[in-house]
Amino acid sequence: MTRLYSAHPLYPAAADQAYPLVNLRHPGLSLRNWRAVVRRLSRGSRARGGLVMVRNARGAVVAVFSYRVGEPLVGGLLLRVTDVVMGRLPGDALPDAVAACAEQLARDLGYPQILIEFSDDALSDGEAGILHAAGYESGGRLLVRGAPVGHAAVAWARTPAVRSH
Predict the structure, then answer these.
(1) Is the dihedral of CA 55, 58, 59, 62 positive or negative?
(2) Are strands 49-56 and 113-116 parallel, antiparallel or unpaired?
(3) 17-69 pLDDT, tens per residue?
(4) Residue 80's closest CA among 106, 110, 46, 52?
(5) Which domains does the chain have, with CATH numbers?
(6) Which one of 132-136, 155-159, 160-164 scores highest in mean pLDDT?
(7) In degrees, to the nearest 5, what angle opens at C-alpha 98 toward C-alphas 94 and 104?
(8) N or C: which end of the chain has fewer CB within 10 A?
(9) CA 154, CA 28: separation in Å to the nearest integer?
């Protein structure tokens, strides 16, 4: 982590401080619902997941992200960083600080791999290039669709498991 930024676990007591930044990215999220999200994500073990806020030297919250442990098919456990919300500042310092914070968190928790999901509009081409130069590579595409609730989900859940003989 650079001297300009510091990372802190985001607990319910600090939810209101991070809300203005999160609300820029998710304007439909009310303060009440945000507080509930922070409470829910800070209940479990820090080693399994949670929220992190990144502050600048003046103490302002300039980034927030969630993390959890993932286990891909091969390669062992990894730290999966998602829901990255960052302010827009000139230069590469902020994305670099988020990546450095995530890397330090992975080291602290003992995970040998890290996956960071930035939304398409979170990084400029220059910022993406800087992270690529730091050793990150694009891992493909992440396709997102709201989960439809209805007959298809119910039908799938009722499909009997296939047993092999």
Answers:
(1) negative
(2) unpaired
(3) 999 999 988 999 999 999 999 999 999 888 889 999 999 989 999 999 999 98
(4) 106
(5) 5-158 (3.40.630.30)
(6) 132-136
(7) 140
(8) C
(9) 28
